Amino acid sequence: MKTAVVTDSTAYIPKDLREKLNIHMIPLSVIFGDETYQEEVEISASDFYEEVKHKELPTTSQPSIGEFTALYEKLANEFDAVISIHLSSGVSGTFQGAVSAGSMVDGIKAYPFDSEISCMVQGFYAIEAAEMAQQGISATDIIARLQEMKQSTRAYFMVDDLSHLQRGGRLSSAQALIGSLLQVKPLLHFVDKKIVPFEKIRTRKKAMKRIIELLGEDVKSGEPFRAVIIHANREEEAVEWKAELEAAYPNVEFMLSYFGPVIGTHLGEGAMGLGWVKK
């Protein structure tokens, strides 16, 4: 049984790694006025952050069911099953699109998977699934492993400006108002598939220190972990943070990633996050 792995563009898996692992990517889009750009295909993260300096923030859109069915039909020529891993259904209808398309396509069994998160932490699920698929492991066993990963998956992030999340409907108005009045840097995380405040912290430096403490609590057993630092156009700061974390936690394999156009629209430039999962 041959299993394909699909994820959406918000996993922000580097193209060379997607190609190496044969991960198929379906893009979400950002819309500036009358112009629509598929992220990771027609607009890069660096181009996006340059664009928003001169234009109003765009809106975002998910892939159509037709795009999903076209991809699944193409995969049906070569594969028996497809595991389709997507950003949290609490912030986007992308996962539901995968569910709908999976029920419409003949010749391939679809296994939609709600990562309940986004960005490269979502990418960890896709990478794991693809590595297992390349070993010939069955789709049902892969899904079981992804469910197991959820037990140790954590991610925390902070934003410089809560207004983007509020405007996009991803955070309530009251929470955004309180945050801006107090000049806090709230730590955010996903709970029940939605973005909610974890703690309110006064400064960026203290927020990042708190994230490190949370990582330390989880990895103190010495077991091997995989972690990712995610930044919104703050690469230099992210590189420095990675060096600091690698020195402190030798049992954790760290990588760098970014908040691309779609997620960056909702978080704004300057956001920083850290996610991890037990290997």
From TrEMBL:
Pfam families in the cross-refs: DegV
Keywords, alphabetical: Lipid-binding
InterPro entries, alphabetized: DegV, DegV_C, DegV_domain_contain
One of the record's GO molecular function terms: lipid binding
Keyword Zinc carried by entry: no
Highest taxon in the source lineage: Bacteria
Gene3D superfamilies registered for this protein in UniProt: 3.30.1180.10, 3.40.50.10170
NCBIfam families with a match to the protein in the record: DegV
Identification of the protein by name: Fatty acid-binding protein DegV
Organism: Bacillus canaveralius
